[in-house]
Amino acid sequence: MGLLSKLFGQEKNQDIEVKNYFEALTAYAPIFTSFEGGVYELELTRAIIHSFATACSKLKPEIKGTAQANLTNVFKFRPNEYMNTIQFIYNIATNFAVNNNAFIVPIEDEYGNITGYYPINPVTCEVVDVDGVAYFRFTFNNGQRVAVEKTRVGHLTQFQYNDDFFGVDNSVLKPTMNLIHTQNQGIVNAVKNSATIRLLAIANQVLKESDIEATQKRFTETHFSKENTGGVMLLDGKFNDVKLLNIKPYTVDHAQVKQIQENAFNYFGTNEAILQNKFTEDEWNAYYEGKIAPFAYALSLALTNMTFSRKELAFGNEIRFSDNMLNYASSATKERRATAGFDRGQLSINESRELFGQPPIKGGDKYYIRKEYAEKDKLHADDEGNGYVELGDDDENQGN
Questions:
Q1: Rounded Cα distance, 243 and 202, in Å
Q2: What is the pLDDT of residue 319?
Q3: What are the boundaries of each domain within the chain?
């Protein structure tokens, strides 16, 4: 049994009776096709996507509400039998960045209950009409097709403009990708050119072709081998002239390289510091708010809507993905946050320890509040309210 049969069941692999494409408000046919421009095949763009997906993979799932309580461990450890939670989120984030669309389908038991989730990467996806109901019809690399009701699929999009259902592809990045490719080729050619002919020697007599090859080989071995440690070239009368050729191969200058990189950074919303893991606290906070948090919210909505019914949603059931931004904060910031949060009952001992990568301790899940705070007009009262002194007008005036 193949993966497709495990995910959708054997009977669902057959093409369903499609009436037409689902009618959209725009003039575009509701069809998504993966971009063949190789956005994941270049070193720089792949590194950017990997950096984003890695950061997203550390998001922590949380199920709110009592419906589908069995999914708590599914999200915490293994959303499907082939992936753990980190791999699951990484896969979705990668598809999201590469295709501007990401699809998640439910794994169900024989009773229709959701037992897991799987991110799929179809070649094409069409929104089709089946008896007035919108379905996603997926086509995979092996040519197999499967259709799933749209409301049962988790779908994340970005760069969604002229299509009611899908985000557009990354073809707008193609000029920058061509520049990156040309830049890399220029560096390769520059290295090759550095090993080409540098000397021109003119023989003082006419030589046969075989003699030319033998003389050239002997000249190279004599003067350019590692045995010539003195660096001196001594010529006899076989040559009238020896000239040094000043060949300067063209390479992309530093400013142009930076501009090409900035084009890619701007498109994906990142920078060199994030890519090379040398960011400051403020740089990470900006990246988190601009890239990771929107993805986390989109993933939360996609999984929540495909998992819970309208009634369950009305009762507050929800799937959330979040991360502790303080993991990337400085030690001083963590210490201030831990102290302030602990004193005000916002953080427990174990939550404070977690900020510093320390394991939880027994009894560390309690919350505490400092008790020396009091209302200004009750400073003369003890904890039970005894000894409260009513301040007169004169006393109040003296305190001002």
A1: 9
A2: 93
A3: 1-170+255-326, 200-239, 329-400
Check: CB of residue 119 under 8 Å from CB of residue 138.
no
Strands 31-33 and 114-120 come out as unpaired
Count CB neighbours of 16 within 10 A.
14
In the three-class reduction of DSSP (H, G, I as helix; E, B as strand; rest coil), residue 153 is classed as coil
Asked whether the beta carbons of 329 and 281 are under 8 A apart, the reply is yes
pLDDT, tens only, 142-165: 888 888 999 999 999 999 888 888
Alpha-carbon span 295 to 368, nearest angstrom:
34
Residues 6+ apart with CB under 8 A from 215: 203, 207, 238
**Is-contact 140 8, C-beta < 8 A?**
no
Closest CA to 292 of 326, 261, 322, 328: 322
For residue 347, report the phi and psi dihedrals to the nearest 5 degrees. Answer: -130, 140
Predicted structure pTM score? 0.72
What is the DSSP secondary-structure string of 35-78?
--S-TTSSHHHHHHHHHHHHHHHT-EEEEESSTTTTHHHHHHT-
Q: pLDDT tens across 196-220, in order?
A: 556 666 766 676 777 777 777 777 7
d(CA 106, CA 153): 7
Neighbouring residues of 377: CB distance < 8 A, sequence distance ≥ 6: 391
Model pLDDT for residues 347-383, shown as the tens digit of each residue: 888 888 877 778 888 888 888 887 666 665 666 665 5
Query: Cβ distance 23 to 129 under 8 Å?
Result: yes
Task: Please report the sign of the dihedral spanned by the C-alpha atoms of residue 251, residue 255, residue 258, residue 263.
Answer: negative
Q: Which two tokens stand for residue 137?
A: 């019809």
Phi, psi of 93 (to 5 degrees): -65, -40
Least confident of 124-133, 135-144, 231-240: 231-240
Output the CA torsion 337→300→64→312 (10° steps). Answer: 160
What residues have CB less than 8 Å from 224, skipping those under 6 apart?
none
CA 288 to chain CA centroid, nearest Å = 11
Amino acid in position 296:
A
| Rounded average pLDDT over 161-170 | 87
DSSP track, 312-324: HHHTT-EEEEE--
Structure tokens at 31: 């069809």
Find the farthest-apart pair of alpha carbons in the chain and give their distance in angstroms, rounded: 123
Both structure tokens of 317: 């059931």
